[in-house]
């Protein structure tokens, strides 16, 4: 999860933000981001199962996605305000917003991994 969220951060802030109107860059971003963000979405249940007992999996999964729903519910209106601030035509503010949130997720996943399994890179669950 640390790797996938970090790569999504880099792709968003480096490739998409700099793409402008270049269709080739936007297509490259869409393909690469689709691959890496899809990996992050599919790894979420695996990560949940690594930190809870089998009998608690349903509760932990439900709690996780409840927290995610709050971010989704509030993120859309925030994105609308950012879009209005940019005059409705530019996406630069939204790209930075998304990239910064991906970076925050990278930090959170890094901290969670360090707390749960140790700070060595070779440590496995």
TrEMBL record:
The highest taxon in the source lineage is Eukaryota
Q: What are the entry keywords?
A: Membrane, Signal, Transmembrane, Transmembrane helix
Name the chain's protein. Answer: Monocarboxylate transporter
Q: Which InterPro entries match?
A: MFS_trans_sf
Q: Does the keyword Ribosomal protein apply?
A: no
Signal peptide residues on this chain, from the entry's feature table: 1-19
Transmembrane stretches in the record are: 29-53, 65-82, 94-116
């Amino acid at each position: 999860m640390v790797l996938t969220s970090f790569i999504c951060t880099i792709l968003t802030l480096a490739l998409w933000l700099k793409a402008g109107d270049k269709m080739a860059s936007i297509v490259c971003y869409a393909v690469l981001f689709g691959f890496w963000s899809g990996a992050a979405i599919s790894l979420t249940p695996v990560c949940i199962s690594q930190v809870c007992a089998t009998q608690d999996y349903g509760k932990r999964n439900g709690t996780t996605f409840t927290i995610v729903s709050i971010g989704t519910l509030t993120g859309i209106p925030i994105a609308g305000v950012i879009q209005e601030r940019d005059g409705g035509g530019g996406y630069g503010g939204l790209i930075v917003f998304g990239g910064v949130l991906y970076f925050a997720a990278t930090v959170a996943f890094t901290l969670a991994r360090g707390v749960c399994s140790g700070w060595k890179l070779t440590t496995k669950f």
